[in-house]
Write a structure and sequence with these properties.
The chain is built from seven helices and five strands; from the N terminus they run E-E-E-H-E-H-H-E-H-H-H-H. With 193 residues, the chain is an alpha/beta fold. Helix 1 packs parallel to helix 3, helix 5 packs across helix 6 and helix 5 crosses helix 7. It folds into two domains: 128 residues, Ribonuclease H-like superfamily/Ribonuclease H (Nucleotidyltransferase, domain 5, 2-Layer Sandwich); 46 residues. 48% of the residues lie in helices and 23% in strands. This is Ribonuclease H. GO terms for molecular function: nucleic acid binding; RNA-DNA hybrid ribonuclease activity. InterPro entries: RNase_HI-like, RNaseH-like_sf, RNaseH_domain, RNaseH_sf. It comes from Thermoproteus uzoniensis (strain 768-20).
């Protein structure tokens, strides 16, 4: 099965040294979304936007393989990652070299692959997922987080979980399930009432 893989990473509120988060989306060749994911790539010293971008690609490729993709068309808005994977730019960081090696090992498991740079506007869903990851995990890593609608949603899930006697980890799993099930706009409507 041929799949399209979109990936994105961010390091906020400062780069380097912030909270690195990622998001990815995987589509089949007909344009049907197969999966999407997000998470924390790194935090603190040594954490950069580029590390988060590489982790996004690594995690997306792992998931694509699990889904049965044997060909992948990779799209990302990080010129550095795209050009390094293509061999057009050198890798000067030991951490990025390790991540690039992991990505190349995963790519070797696909029958065919290609990678291309796309503008940020063409990568909105993966970018949005990396932003959600930041909002969800910022408080856990001491980065404050935003005060927008997603913080309202996080608060509501935590309060509901406490009322039901659930542990914080269970609340986090519930929130992650909601984020996977609903589109961002639907969740925003729920949160803003």
């Amino acid at each position: 099965m041929r799949c399209a893989v979109y990936f994105d990473g961010a390091c906020e509120p400062v780069n380097p040294g912030g909270l690195g988060t990622y998001g990815y989306v995987i589509y089949d060749e007909g344009g049907r979304r197969l999966d999407r994911g997000y998470g924390v790539a790194c935090h603190g010293d040594g954490c950069t936007n580029n590390v988060a971008e590489y982790v996004a690609l690594r995690e997306a490729l792992r998931r694509a393989k699990e889904l049965g993709c044997d060909e992948v068309e990779i799209r990302g808005d990080s010129q550095l990652v795209v050009r390094q994977i293509k061999g057009e730019w050198a890798v000067n960081s030991l951490k990025l070299m390790e991540l690039k090696d992991e990505v190349e090992a995963l790519l070797a498991g696909f029958a065919r692959w290609s990678v291309e740079w796309v503008p940020r506007e063409a990568n909105k869903e993966a970018d949005g997922l990396s932003q959600i990851a930041y909002e969800v995990y910022a408080a856990q890593y001491g980065y404050g987080g935003g005060d927008g609608w997603i913080q309202t949603l996080i608060g509501e899930v935590r309060r509901a979980a406490e009322a039901e006697g659930l542990r914080p980890e269970e609340a986090a799993r519930i929130l992650a399930a909601l984020l996977k099930k609903y589109r961002l706009g639907e969740l925003r409507e729920l949160a803003e009432g």
